Model the fold of this input.
Amino acid sequence: MKTHKNSVEIRGLDLRFGHVEVLKNLNLDVNDGEFLVLLGSSGCGKSTLLNCIAGLLEVTAGQIFIKEKNVTWAEPSDRGIGMVFQSYALYPQMTVEGNLSFGLKNQKLPKPEIAKRVARAAEILQIESLLKRKPGALSGGQRQRVAIGRALVRDVDVFLFDEPLSNLDAKLRADLRVELKQLHGRLKNTMIYVTHDQIEAMTLADRIAIMKDGLIEQLDTPNNIYNRPVNKYVAGFIGSPSMNFLEGTLEGNSFKFADHSINLDGYEFTRQNQSGGVSFGIRPEHVLTGDAVSDAVFSTAVQVQVIEPLGSDTLALAELAGAKFWIRLDGEASVAVGETLTVGLRPERASLFLHSDELRV
Amino acid sequence: MDKVNRLEGPAGPRPKKAFSGRNIMLYGTLIMVSLYYLLPLYVMVVTSLKGMPEIRLGNIFSPPMEVTFKPWVKAWSEACTGLNCEGLSRGFWNSVRITVPSVIISIAIASVNGYALANWRFKGADIFFTILIFGAFIPYQVMLYPIVILLREIGLYGGLPGLVIVHSIFGMPILTLLFRNYFSSLPEELFKAARVDGARFWGIYFRIMLPMSLPIFVVAMILQVTGIWNDFLFGVVYTRPEYYPMTVQLNNIVNSVQGVKEYNVNMAATILTGLVPLVIYFVSGKLFVRGIAAGAVKG
Amino acid sequence: MQNARPNQLFRNMTAKIAAIPMILTALCVFVGGTVWTIVYSFTSSKLLPRAKFVGFDQYERLWSTSRWTVSLENLFIYGLCSLVLSLIIGFLLASLLDQKIRFENTFRSILLYPFALSFIVTGLVWQWILNPEFGVQSVVRGAGWIGFSFNPLYDSELVIYGVLIAGLWQGSGLIMVLMLAGMRGIDQDIWKASRVDGIPMWKTYILIIIPMMRPVFITTLVIIASGIVKVYDLVVAQTGGGPGISSEVPAKYVYDYMFQGQNLGQGFAASTMMLLAVLIVVIPWAYLEFGSKNRG
Done:
């Protein structure tokens, strides 16, 4: 009955530890060759979900399919997955070569085949010179390469990454991120990647699944997640500094807050004919300043309270209608604390969420 | 305005007094206490090197005027327990034959148990484990006789194998705890990685866990060797006289009511019995401390 | 469904098989043996266990035997003294070693080595040192103090204190190590803070460190207490229970009645009383230690 081939398919997955529900009736389809990122704050169940897919956690209810095969009760090693862990989890007493070949030896593959695969993985990851060393003698970046290599040699369809870059420093993380993306472009495997880092998620993913409390809040492309978040949680979670929210009411075609009113012509409504209390969300970088204010349908003056120069751009914190209001300015912009800034808002770039269900209007 | 002369006053490292009152108090106390703790060892050694006439003359603290090793020889090969006059050597070899297999078996069982508990949590495991730990607190006296019956049923009462079983059983709570805690402290992701790599229960135990756990095995070994070597109660209850371990034989030699008391032989025998754990203690140093701390704090 | 769900019983089968020795020990020896002894303490077993139940007879006889009451009294004195003294000595020694001293390892090794010895060895050495004819008493008298008298092992009032001296010598090193570990486990910033605040060191120990070490104290207390109830070898080696019955202890009572007096029923009843004593100590502790963890 399925219309297209899924690489990983999850049906009605439940996971409980005693009385704690970690995953609740979760459904997820991952396309063949897709890079899917599971993103969420700690405790949202993203790593738990990954461990379920790997077979390292026993599910309470539901089914997991990998490559059309029901693997709900299969051993981790029989699922056709490779996994990369946050702490690398390299076997400390084995050399890099031993680490790479351990899984293959357990599969009882012939020796030449093992050697071939190890050599290929080492070449792809450029760790040929490290093969005889032990993990203790490697740097963090090298260790993570070996950990990826261990997944690579298994020659599997699905790669699982459990926050693989979080133990690295910022510079290395950025480098390896690029390498991972190139690797995916080359191998075209399905990859499921867990992280709490938005930048990793945005840069790597074909699609992102934002998780909260064991549920997937939104599953979409990075672009849609960023620009058209389905609910207030997703809107506030993605982006740094996070989206500004103005609280007010939706009346017909205009948003009323404090004693202002914004005409919503140009806003793409998801649901028609709603009214009542809403949050008007606008990202700091979508607030217009300077000459651009003239394009806005609404403008007002705010007083700058704090300035955070980041080099490439400058963040200014102000207050609008009693709420904190961040504005992203050009790095060259000269503003001072206490200065008054005229800001403009355009409904095209805004997101409106109903107070009653916190969903996008 | 007075100007402060900045060149005067404290500069550079603060001078330290090597013989401050505090240090004299501190080290003085420690040295006194240490001497007190060393005293019995010293008395044992000097007494064992004296002849009986010299002992009768007087001071147990004075060094021997004439050093003799006869008491040691006598303690090892001639001292009598009852009618038997083979010395401590038989007890020594009995203790060796008890300790070696007991240590190996108890550690093998407990390490696998600890590993199963730490990494393969299965239903009911916690209940058995709790019982086991509670068992460590039950006075041995409560279980002495039922074990006599069990051993008699399987025909091992009185011999060495029976005692080995008893030591393995009573070593289990503390060792299992030791290993469980150690294996739990290893990164769980290693275990997960090994499972993804297709290793099973024994594969992970032998290929991944064992090579990483040498220190804890040494700690367990120290704990067990000293514990089993020093045991008296189980030895006296579960073995016949010809299989008595060294401690039991020592007590029988020293506290026998027959004959003239030969204090020098007694002390030589006492040192000989304490020698094995003492050597292990001084050789292993910090690991011993780690062992008893791990064993005691958690047990 | 493509494959049948594996039977719950057979999941992790290898792990379960590997745990069989533990399960057998826990059930057969620890639970089974304890229950068996308790049950048979209500019988009139003599040379061999016989299931002839006589109610509380054995317990009545036990409590009317002077040897048992003396044993308990001794255990109480020995227990209380060694509890208090070894905690104090252990803590003081640990705080001395905690002063960033040189040769810490040497001092620690010296203070702890008695713990590596068997109780039999300890008992025999102290029996020799306290020997009235040749030991401390005769040395002091020989030095000129003719009237000096220190002969605990042959004085029925003092003999248990003689055992106590040996017990403390052997056990206090362990308490010191545990206390030291507890002190080292305390955040070093506490010391920095108290130094900045100008609090004297002894005051820091009493007002800050000791309260913070509460869990260590409790655990140590339980260890000492459960060790005290088992005290046996030391008495056998050092005094043999004498003079007369004045240094008897419950564990020796049990052994003597079970294996020498051929009065199993008495042994079972006495050992059941020992179990009761341990439970009184251990259960509140286990409740505090593990009960709270389950809730939190």
Q: What stands out?
A: The CA atoms of residues 232 and 251 of chain C lie 6 Å apart. Chain C has a mean pLDDT of 86. The two ends of chain C are 40 Å apart (CA to CA). Chain C touches chain B through 95 residues (CB under 8 Å).
